[in-house]
From TrEMBL:
Superkingdom, taxonomy of origin: Bacteria
Organism: Actinomadura yumaensis
Comp. bias regions, Polar residues: 107-135
Region span, Disordered: 105-135
Designated name of the protein: Anti-sigma factor antagonist
Gene3D superfamilies listed in its UniProt record: STAS domain
Residues covered by the STAS domain: 8-117
Stored PROSITE patterns: STAS
Any one Pfam family match given in the protein's UniProt record, by short name: STAS
Family, similarity comment: Belongs to the anti-sigma-factor antagonist family.
């Protein structure tokens, strides 16, 4: 990443109305709006259930945390869902200390998030990691 303010979001997989978005970069005041806007656009494009792969998120401040909470609430209001996967230790501690881990489900990997998701039924991807594209 060339700048601390960069945030990259790519569609990693889709399955049964579930989209896995890979997020890379810091979630902060500068980037949190981009995460929310991109995720809500994907949700509006036939993928109301989102899994965010946060394995490449080295930092999250209160703005990033708020963006996750607001995104969760907006998806839920639209009969969708938000799940977090591959959450780094530092962010896991933040989610735990703030109680957000009781609101937004987390999984150790995107595969475990997909296999246990209540809306995943077909078992076949329409996009795979090989066809990942930036949003």
């Amino acid at each position: 990443m060339s700048h601390a303010h960069d945030l990259r979001i790519s569609m990693a997989r889709t399955l049964d109305g579930i989209a896995v978005l890979a997020v890379e970069g810091e979630l902060n005041l500068t980037t949190s709006t981009r995460l929310s806007d991109t995720a809500l656009t994907v949700a509006g494009d036939q993928h109301p259930h989102l899994i965010l792969d946060l394995s490449r998120v080295p930092f999250c401040d209160s703005s990033g945390l708020n963006a996750l909470i607001v995104l969760y609430r907006r998806l839920k209001a639209g009969h969708g869902s938000l799940t977090l996967a591959a959450v780094p230790d530092r962010l896991t501690r933040l989610l735990t200390h703030t109680g957000v881990n009781r609101l937004i489900p987390t999984h150790p990997t995107t595969d475990s998030a997909l296999t246990t998701h209540p809306h995943a039924t077909s078992g076949t991807d329409s996009h795979t990691n090989a066809s990942r594209h930036s949003l």
